[in-house]
Amino acid sequence: MKSKKLLQNGAAYVLVQAILLGILFLGPTDWWGTLTFSQSVSETLHLIAVALFPLGLLIAIVAAIQLKRNLTPLPMPVERGELIQTGLYAYVRHPIYFGVILAALAWFLHTQAVLTLVELVALIIFFEIKSKKEEYWMGQVYPEYAGYQKRTAKLIPGVY
């Protein structure tokens, strides 16, 4: 019965997300080796990482703040919530995920590890799966969500 409840409200997604992020940021990076770049390319990637990581965190934090009372770790909308379509949500439907993806990309650029790249790709695939379920629930709660989907990018502003 408990496992059914975890699936019904999306708590299983939160658990998987926590595990993926823990493995990505706290796990080993050198199991499969690192990608080989020239020193200048490697240093440039490190500089990009230094800029992207705080930007990703800032985007995720600002997006969380903009949700106000709608913020929940679960992908299911809160009761008596509202559909936020302003701020960062005017550019992308899932700006928290976008910010986390940027931070994860920065971590890969910093480590330049094959395992980190695999984990980054797994995280992006996971956010795609989780966001589909979340969008299904949002469409059930907010009739205006279909229009919002048509005019607003999903995970990457102006791209997808």
Quick structural gist:
66% of the residues lie in helices and 0% in strands.
Which key terms come to mind for this protein?
6 helices, 0% strand, Isoprenylcysteine carboxylmethyltransferase family protein, mainly alpha
Shape: elongated
Q: Remind me, CATH topology? A: Four Helix Bundle (Hemerythrin (Met), subunit A)
Instruction: Indicate the CATH architecture.
Output: Up-down Bundle
Poorly predicted segments: none
Straight-line distance between termini: 37 Å
List the topology elements.
Elements: H1 2-9, H2 11-26, H3 39-67, H4 95-111, H5 114-141, H6 145-151
Helix pairs in contact: 2-5, 3-4, 4-5
Detailed description of the structure:
The chain has 160 residues and is mostly helical. It has one domain: Four Helix Bundle (Hemerythrin (Met), subunit A) (Up-down Bundle). It has helices at 2-9, 11-26, 39-67, 95-111, 114-141, 145-151. The chain has 6 helices and no strands.
